[in-house]
Specification:
The protein is an alpha+beta fold. It is about 45% helix and about 5% strand. α1 packs across α6, α1 packs across α9 and α5 crosses α8. The chain binds glutathione.
């Protein structure tokens, strides 16, 4: 841990005792830690995930596709408990060599296609079903601009601000200032964009909204990092309007529940294998779990 007088050694060494919320699972290598085959359900799409913002992007899109009547978007959502290191099992690493949720297997193709990185999953599904990705070139490019903006920006919010504000073993002024500044800049980018547009990519609800909302919508609604007051999120008026609008969508409300193991029991569905699971949740799905955003 730094006391302000830290000088990096010539060669970095792994200090397993560095502390912080995820110290037990963070490693400088990427090979699997254990043999573990992934479960396989009966639907064309097999999702392995957790309801963190990156996971929720995908379950929102799947629920939106199903709401439009795309039966081919039926999916099994298997729970991957990242705090237990389940993302380092051999089956999961085979699906995603980066060892992070979400990961998807499309079994409707022969051989099955693996897709990892939430942005790639959104693009793949939007392309496969021809929804939520504009077809007209300028609109499509604008949608992709914001999709990739999210993929590049959110690590500074999550890995930067969220890490130092919530997960680091102590408060450090320099990184909190640095990442709070960047997070507020990003919120301002979105607020200005949404002042002139109903949705992120324009007048159409797209995968760009689905990518951005679980991070910045959650932050605006004060559901992420308990940082609403610190970052004064209520002041981003247009972002607030958009965040609340998306929050009302039934598919978004279902998507948020899938693979969620914390928070209000009524908002949790640990695994989703059938549309009726949202109504008939088992006792297992009502037990509070351990993971968090
Ligand atoms: N760029 C990746 C990021 C995925 C990611 O960071 N997933 C986190 C949860 S939100 C994870 O699996 N963390 C476990 C770990 O780092 O070991 C994506 O968008 O899919």
């Amino acid at each position: 841990m730094s006391d302000g007088n830290y000088k990096p050694p010539a060669v970095w060494a792994w200090d397993a005792e560095s502390g912080g919320r995820f110290a037990a699972i963070n490693r400088p290598v990427s090979e699997p830690t254990h043999e573990c085959a992934l479960p396989r359900g009966r639907h064309p799409l097999q999702l392995y995930s957790l309801a963190t913002p990156n996971g929720v992007k995908v379950t929102i899109l799947l629920e939106e596709l199903l709401a439009l009547g795309h039966d081919g978007a039926e999916y099994d959502a298997h729970l991957i408990r990242i705090t237990e290191g389940e993302q380092f099992g051999s089956g999961f690493v085979e699906l995603n060599p980066n060892g992070k949720i979400p990961a998807l297997l499309d079994c409707s193709a022969e051989p099955a296609i693996r897709i990892f990185e939430s942005g790639a999953i959104l693009l793949y599904l939007a392309g496969k079903f021809g929804e939520f990705l504009p077809t007209q070139t300028a609109d499509r490019v604008e949608c992709l601009n914001w999709l990739f903006w999210q993929m590049g920006s959110a690590p500074l919010l999550g890995g930067g601000f969220g890490h130092f504000y919530v997960y680091a073993p102590a408060y450090f002024e320099y990184p909190i200032n640095r990442y709070a500044m960047e997070t507020k800049r990003q919120l301002d980018v979105l607020d200005r964009r949404l002042a002139a547009n109903t949705f992120i990519a324009g007048e159409e609800y797209t995968i760009a909204d689905m990518a951005i909302w679980p991070w910045y919508g959650a932050l605006a609604l004060d559901r992420l990092y308990d940082a609403g007051e610190f970052l004064q999120v209520r002041g981003y008026r247009h972002l607030q309007r958009w965040a609340e609008q998306i929050d009302q969508r039934p598919a978004v409300q279902r998507g948020r529940m899938v693979n969620r193991t914390w928070g209000e029991p009524a908002e949790q569905l640990h695994e989703r294998h059938d549309a009726s699971d949202f109504v008939h949740r088992t006792q297992d799905n009502l037990d509070p779990g351990t993971a968090s955003d």
